[in-house]
Design a protein that fits this description.
The structure holds two protein chains of two kinds. Chain A is mainly beta. Chain A has two helices and twelve strands. Chain B is mainly beta. Classes of the chains: A mainly beta, B mainly beta. At the A-B interface, helix 1 and strand 1 of A face strand 1, strand 2, helix 3, strand 4 and strand 8 of B.
Chain lengths: 212, 248
């Protein structure tokens, strides 16, 4: 029994010695790399009432030989009045060969990306929630004729609970009008909650929009 | 190395010379042991995987080869080859290295598509195994071979804490995988070779395998489902130990 006690004391002493050994910490910072580059961003529309009725708008960043942005080119968005359109996002990185489809990667990274679609002018502030595609703080201009356009995102990510993404959406037009559509892609790494505020913008462009 | 082998040979030769007449018996025994504890499977892995091809490895343990010390015993039933056995052992499986921290930083940077990823780690894998089970022994004069199946618990004293900060557009997003002191189910088996040195004294060389589905891991500030997220760290180890056993 005495042997047993001695052995146990020796064992516990050894355990305490090793347990007491300092545990150093390690730190590492991964070097900077560039985010995905978007050189061309398009919205492609299909009229729900007539699948042959399609249209699109495209925003292009013009680059020099060193891939520096030297200018932009934006096409006009023209939609029929009192119609519903299915909208799909299509984004490219033309600096890569072959051309890289960024929107496919956004789909893979949907759990921290969120698209916003803001028609202007507006005559009253839109209702903002975690399912609203509208941008808080957009200027309200009661004296201007509004762009009669509403947007609903139709896709969900795989967060728990799922949040909207905006790679697909439905645009509903009203009476003939004109204005702009502001289109923003928010990058919200480990911060996406359905609202506009967290994160930063990967894309923030405007399209001249005509509903006729 | 040659010196160690020579000294070991001399040590065992001396022991065997002094104990030539000793025979292993059906006596119950307890033993004290120590040795190497080697992580296996996912517990030993130190990869992050790739976010875009869906191969992120949530269960990579980044565990290292460490040591184990413990107490062991077997109580024979009516002088048969069957015994009830129990083991209590302490293990240290090390901590994350600087390279591991870089792997984590790069992995989270890629998974969240951000400008930078930073990882800092602290704490070690330290735990206590308490295992019981049936043992069957084969006796050969001065030797006995024991085969054992075990079930029990693993009590974690700590697991590595991983503090991550991903930064995008100069906005930091911190989150962490915390150290765990939880208890998990464990099971395994062992095989050992006992050599009788004296009437009540013997040497035992054991190979022990322990598996645990894991101990619960708490993560803080994880808002989105992306990147490595470990909520239960599985543990699997192979241990080679040498001990002294005492009959009673």
């Amino acid at each position: 029994m005495i042997k047993l006690k001695h052995a146990v004391y020796a064992l516990l002493g050894t355990a305490l010695f090793y347990a007491g050994c300092s545990s150093k910490s390690e730190e590492a910072v991964q070097p900077n790399i560039a985010n995905e580059t978007i050189t061309q961003a398009s919205l492609k529309f299909t009229n729900q009432a007539n699948s042959a009725d399609t249209t699109s708008c495209t925003y292009t960043f013009l680059l020099d030989n060193n891939n520096n942005v030297t200018g932009v080119d934006s096409t006009q968005l023209t939609l029929k009045a009192n119609s519903k359109y299915n909208c799909v996002v299509y984004m490219l990185d033309q600096t890569q060969s072959p051309v890289f489809v960024v929107s496919n990667e956004i789909k893979q990274r949907e759990n921290y990306h969120l698209f916003f679609y803001q028609p202007t002018p507006i005559i009253s502030a839109p209702v903002i929630s975690n399912t609203s595609p509208y941008i808080p703080g957009t200027a309200v201009t009661p004296n201007l004729a509004p762009l009669n356009l509403s947007v609903v995102r139709t896709d969900l990510d795989t967060n728990n609970p799922p949040l909207q993404v905006g790679l697909t959406s439905v645009f509903t037009t009203g009476a003939a009008s004109s204005g702009k559509l502001r289109w923003v892609l928010r990058h919200q790494p480990n911060a996406k909650n359905g609202t506009y505020a967290p994160g930063s913008s990967d894309l923030d462009v405007n399209f001249v929009t005509v509903i006729q | 190395m040659k010196k160690i082998i020579t000294l070991s040979f001399l040590f065992f030769a001396t022991l065997f010379a002094f104990t030539a007449k000793a025979q292993v018996t059906h006596d119950s025994y307890w033993s004290v042991f120590g040795g190497a504890s080697v992580p296996t499977g996912q517990f030993a892995k130190s990869d992050y995987g790739n976010f875009l091809d869906g191969t992120i490895n949530n269960k990579a343990g980044f565990a290292k080869t460490g040591y184990t010390i413990g107490l062991d015993g077997a109580w024979y039933i009516h002088k048969s080859g069957w015994a009830f056995a129990a083991t209590i052992s302490y293990q240290d499986q090390g901590q994350l290295s600087a390279k591991d921290a870089h792997t984590l930083a790069a992995g989270y940077q890629d998974a969240f598509g951000v400008d930078t990823g930073a990882a800092s780690t602290k704490n070690r894998y330290r735990n206590l195994n308490v295992l019981v089970g049936p043992q069957y022994s084969f006796f050969f004069s001065k030797f006995a071979i024991d085969l054992r199946a075990n079930v029990g618990i693993v009590k974690s004293f700590s697991t590595p804490e991983m503090d991550i900060v991903i930064t995008d557009a100069n906005i930091p997003y911190p989150f962490a995988q915390l150290s765990s002191n939880k208890i998990g189910f464990a099971y395994g088996g062992s095989a050992d070779l006992r050599y009788q040195l004296g009437k009540k004294l013997g040497l035992v060389l054991k190979e022990n395998f322990v598996n645990s589905p894991g101990v619960a891991i708490t993560n803080t500030s994880r808002i989105n489902n992306a990147g490595r997220l470990d909520t239960k760290q599985s543990i699997s180890i192979a241990q080679t130990t040498l001990g002294l056993n005492f009959g009673f």
